[in-house]
Design a protein that fits this description.
Helix content is about 75%, strand content about 0%. With about 150 residues, it is mainly alpha-helical.
């Protein structure tokens, strides 16, 4: 008995990820980044629990430099995620971008760190996104290699 041939879900998803105009990817990057910055800012407006247990609310001082910095950092991270997603399927790029930008914004507004410390937070977010994309690229390479090996045999 021969099994009917089915389409591979990875191939179908791969084609879906690659399709689409550039403006749609730019819109995704802008919207997810804006959502992350907004959620981080909203999270900085209140505190859960007593002051001695947890993040302080937003520290006094100018907040626009931090919001602008995390918007720029988020757009850079989204470019990396979209670059990898154009090659292979990347698992939950929106959640990764939203989470990193939201946490970075929240931490920055809670303590108002110096620019070097913000750069350290940005480097940590960059490392997370890079590892996330590297795992996706490596997984796709393993799948391709296993397809090639099964096609030869």
């Amino acid at each position: 008995m021969d099994l009917p041939e089915t389409t591979n879900a990875v191939d179908t998803q791969d084609e879906r990820v690659r399709s689409g105009p550039l403006w749609r990817h730019a819109l995704w990057a802008a919207l997810v980044t804006a959502a992350g910055v907004t959620l981080g800012w909203l999270g900085a407006l209140f505190r859960i629990g007593p002051e001695e247990y947890g993040l302080p609310p937003a520290a006094p001082g100018a907040l626009w430099p931090y919001l602008l910095a995390w918007a720029v950092i988020g757009l850079g991270l989204s470019a990396i995620l979209r670059f990898a997603a154009a090659k292979v399927p990347v698992y939950s790029p929106s959640e990764v971008l939203l989470g990193t930008v939201m946490i970075g914004t929240r931490l920055s507004l809670g303590w108002r760190p110096e620019p070097l410390e913000v750069a350290g937070l940005a480097a940590a977010a960059l490392l997370l996104v890079t590892v996330w994309c590297a795992v996706a690229l490596r997984g796709a390479a393993v799948v391709r290699r296993s397809k090639g090996a099964s096609g030869v045999a």
